[in-house]
Automatic annotation (TrEMBL), chain A:
This is Cytochrome aa3 subunit 2. Subunits I and II form the functional core of the enzyme complex. Electrons originating in cytochrome c are transferred via heme a and Cu(A) to the binuclear center formed by heme a3 and Cu(B). SUPFAM superfamilies: Cupredoxins. It comes from Sulfoacidibacillus thermotolerans (Acidibacillus sulfuroxidans). It is found in: Membrane. Its main location: membrane. GO terms for molecular function: copper ion binding; cytochrome-c oxidase activity.
Length: 267, 623
């Protein structure tokens, strides 16, 4: 009984400390968030942290506490442990709770956050989105803006660049082929379109078209935070580490200005 | 030898000296490769410019080399010729030489598997050290080309998964211990087992030699269509994995049959040791899923060599991914299920208490085995349709329930026990702690919305190293220390053992817990070059990784030293009741002089039989 009491007190104390830690630092789980999708993922993560903390504390405390309490004190060779070979209460609580916690996690945040994502990606939600056609090849990202007639967005150095207006939903249309060798259909491989600050990535698969939706929430760029960059996340050959592009999230006015400049440059 | 050979009695026997089997195997492998390779490259399928190596020639040459290796090692005299009724006898190898020869003794085979696995572990570990050296800089500085780094990642992963993760606890400890644990003097198919073990070094060598054919850059998963576009080294990845998985498949057929049919009298299913349950569960997983990946790899080889368009842009790249992970996720349970079983094997002995809720432990193992076939696509949230996500998310979250039963059983066993804090128990506790972190982070990865951010980052790398090193390698070390007196009749040095445990724990947890943070900060996988803001944390991780590498080396040296010149101990130093401890340590050629009879539970410490006696000569054991 004393064991149980001491353990219970320790469990509550450490769980409370853990929860305070989650409150203080949980929102740093995604280091830098620049889209609503990243914020959705972050709040789902914080919810999971809240529930997992007492469970984690329980098991770790058990793994440390019991061996210390129960450690054999004498060097008798015939000692036997006391205690039952089965305890219906303990097993029932364990099984019920693990089932309940997992069902809860499946309902929220798993399904609820996924439904939110499905909704954002549904055709009805994509009425006034900015459409960016993304083409991946070994090893380069091409960005074109069909609504504005920009065929291949480039910066002053001739590198591919992605410009996005803040607070406007963007639909990325993802394809993998080599625009320079369009006749060679077997040429390209799977890539993964990832902007770390947007909290999501989507694989770009040869022969298929995939979509990713994001709503940028902050004015930022690769120069201000390197997590705002396009990075290929799926290994795609020896050029994989070099397959990145700079990203600029700008104000609406600055975006219009940039579009004009791109069109003037004939991109 | 308990195995009757075909034609044992009537034929007159010719005695014949053969050269050392390993040398002969290598020679025959070399001859086989040259003959068949030249036959294909120059006569059957000559290609423009008459290259010495072509894709078809190297595949057929490899098959001939593997056959030559298996025949040379002893398959000729012991398997092939007897099949035709010809008996050849030659002096059996003795002493250390028998570990380098064909042997039907399950204990010799177990050690052969363990040594091969350990070799693979340190070779792949060296590859990891090279990776960590490169990652200390944010630009190419150690490897000349990025492809060489990515290939090193692939070799590390392939050897670790297929020659260590799935082999050490099953082919190694399983072959050695399972027949003894169920009271049998041999496994069910000793000749198949004697040959299958030699596929492991063949597979490891194949993967290590793959750079000769060109840098393959797919990592251990061989993703299509990249594999089709890569240089030919990928062929040796497919063939090496084929050899390694064939070996594991044969182990599983052998051990399943052994457990089903060779149990001692009285060893009912209710009394079957937990480790035997674990091996049974993992063997069923192997028997279901290894043929699946082998067929997939054969398709991939045909895709390149014929060539066919199965997995290219005009075929379906996603199909390969599905087929790979259909095997790939059960694979990780192939790795940890025996580890769960070893926790439940060691802990009641150390706690001097009956195994708590034994049935629930078994239910856990079996349900993990069954559910593991329903979760594969959680590796593919980034490339599947939205509507397909939730079922896989559901089963992925649910599989934590039967996994948790292993914790429930161990914690219940420890509660109010007389726990002995020994080196094996320390390693098991560390393993449970590390696997817990692996499991908890898995909850985040199972959630599609969070997964889309964490997938393919170092968060995932940290997660699966916590489950595999944390779950399996720490348990492997626990098992090596626990059964060391069994293997050798000697004991490790406690202080050195504790030092080794703390050493690898610090190295491991330091390196891999930082990888979670690194992944969250935007470090993706398979990159030798990364943005400069990640360099600081990479240097710290590398330093911990070097500490970890040295820690493993320290444990290896300590275990090897203890086996050779550790302090001699009594035959059952842990006072365990399972049958393998009721034989002499180290066990005699025939483990049991007479078949043991089991009359009670192996995990019962509550009876009056407080200081049960160990028979000085192995005889019928009754409990």
């Amino acid at each position: 009984m004393a064991d149980l009491l001491i353990f219970g007190v320790l469990w509550v104390v450490f769980s409370v400390l853990g929860e305070l830690g989650v409150s203080a630092w949980g929102h740093n789980f995604y280091y830098y968030t620049a889209s609503t999708q990243a914020l959705d993922g972050l709040s789902a993560s914080v919810f999971l942290f809240r529930f997992l903390t007492p469970i984690f504390v329980f098991v770790v405390l058990m793994l440390i506490f019991i061996p210390l309490r129960a450690r054999r004190r004498s060097r008798d060779s015939v000692v036997r442990g006391k205690g039952a070979r089965f305890n219906a209460t303990y097993v029932t609580i364990w099984v019920t709770l693990s089932l309940a916690v997992n069902l809860l996690f499946f309902v929220h945040p798993t399904t609820s956050a996924a439904e939110q994502m499905f909704k954002e990606m549904s055709p009805q939600a994509e009425q006034h989105d900015l459409v960016v056609d993304v083409v991946a090849r070994q090893w380069q990202w091409f960005f074109s803006y069909p609504q504005y007639g920009i065929q291949n967005a480039l910066n002053a150095n001739g590198n591919n660049v992605l410009y996005l207006p803040v607070n406007r939903p963007v639909e990325f249309v993802l394809r993998s082929y080599d625009p320079n060798h369009p006749y060679a259909v077997g040429l390209d491989v799977i890539h993964s379109f990832w902007i770390p600050a947007f909290g999501e990535k989507m694989d770009v698969i040869p022969g298929e078209t995939r979509y990713m939706v994001a709503t940028p929430t902050k004015i930022a760029s690769t120069e201000t935070n390197p997590e705002v960059r396009v990075q290929c996340a799926e290994v795609c050959g020896p050029g994989h580490p070099y397959m990145y592009a700079t990203v600029h999230i700008v104000s609406d006015a600055a975006f219009k200005q940039w579009v004009k400049q791109q069109l003037k440059a004939g991109n | 030898m308990s195995v009757a050979r075909i034609g044992d009695a009537p034929l007159p026997l010719r005695k014949k000296q053969i050269m050392p089997p390993v040398i002969r195997g290598l020679l025959w492998a070399g001859i086989g490769f040259l003959v068949v390779n030249c036959l294909v490259a120059y006569l059957l399928d000559p290609q423009y410019g008459d290259p010495f190596i072509t894709q078809p020639s190297v595949v057929f040459g490899w098959i001939a080399a593997t056959a030559g290796w298996l025949l040379g090692i002893g398959g000729l005299e012991n398997v092939l010729l007897p099949s035709f009724g010809i008996t050849v006898t030659y002096p059996e190898a003795t002493g250390w030489r028998r570990y380098f020869a064909y042997s039907t003794n399950h204990k010799v085979i177990g050690i052969q598997y363990l040594v091969s696995s350990t070799g693979g572990f340190f070779i792949a570990g060296l590859a990891a050290m090279l990776m960590r050296i490169q990652l200390m800089g944010d630009h190419m500085w150690f490897f000349p080309y990025a492809g060489q780094y990515i290939e090193t990642v692939g070799i590390h992963g392939t050897i670790m998964m297929f020659s260590v993760g799935t082999v050490a606890l099953v082919g190694g400890l399983g072959n050695y211990l399972i027949p003894m644990m169920i009271g049998s003097n041999s496994s069910a198919f000793p000749r198949m087992s004697a040959l299958s073990v030699w596929l492991v070094p063949a597979g490891i060598m194949t993967v290590i030699l793959s750079p000769l054919l060109g840098e393959w850059t797919t990592g251990w998963r061989g993703y299509e269509p990249l594999a089709q576009n890569d240089p030919n080294g990928i062929l040796f990845y497919y063939l090496g994995v084929l050899a390694l998985t064939l070996s594991s498949l044969m182990v599983s057929l052998n051990l399943t049959t052994t457990i089903l049919f060779k149990r001692a009298k009285g060893l009912t299913w209710n009394r079957l040791p937990m480790y035997a349950w674990g091996i049974l569960a993992v063997s069923l997983l192997n028997i279901i899923w290894l043929p699946e990946i082998e067929i997939t790899f054969i398709l991939a080889v045909l895709d390149r060599v014929v060539p066919l368009p199965f997995f290219t842009a005009v075929g379906s790249p996603i199909t390969y991914l599905e087929l790979f992970w259909l095997f790939g996720h059960p694979e990780v349970y192939i790795i940890v299920v025996p580890a769960f079983a070893i926790w439940m094997e060691i802990m009641p002995v150390m706690a001097r208490k009956p195994l708590f809720a034994r049935e629930w432990g078994i239910i856990g193992l079996i349900f993990v085995m069954m559910l593991s076939g329903f979760v594969w696509a959680h590796h593919m949230f980034t490339n599947m349709r939205l509507t397909e996500m939730l079922p896989f998310s559901f089963f992925t979250e649910m599989i934590s329930i039967p996994t948790g039963f292993a914790y429930m059983v161990v914690i219940g066993t420890l509660w109010r026990s007389r726990f002995r804090m020994t080196v094996p128990s320390l390693f098991v506790l560390m393993s449970m702690f590390n696997f817990l972190i692996g499991g908890m982070t898995g909850v985040f990865l199972a959630d599609p919305v969070i997964n889309l951010q964490l997938h393919d980052t170092f968060f995932v790398v940290a997660h699966f190293h916590f489950t595999i090193i944390g779950g399996m390698v720490f348990t492997w070390l626990a098992a090596m220390y626990y059964w060391l007196p069994k293997f050798s009749g000697r004991m490790y040095n406690s202080k050195m053992g504790v030092l080794g445990a703390i050493w690898v724990f610090i190295g491991f947890d330091g390196a891999f817990s930082l990888m979670f943070i690194q992944g969250l900060r935007g470090m993706n996988r398979w990159v030798p070059v990364y943005p400069p803001y990640l360099q600081g944390i990479n240097i710290v991780i590398s330093i911990f990784a070097f500490i970890l590498g040295l820690g493993f080396l320290f444990n290896l040296i300590h275990i090897a030293w203890a086996m050779k010149s550790g302090k001699k101990v009594q035959e059952n130093p842990w006072q365990s009741k399972t049958l393998e401890w009721q034989t002499t340590s180290p066990p005699a050629e025939e483990s049991f002089a007479a078949a043991p009879v089991v009359t009670g539970s192996f995990y019962d410490y509550e009876d009056d039989d407080e200081s049960f006696s160990i028979p000085t000569t192995p005889g019928p054991v009754s409990m």
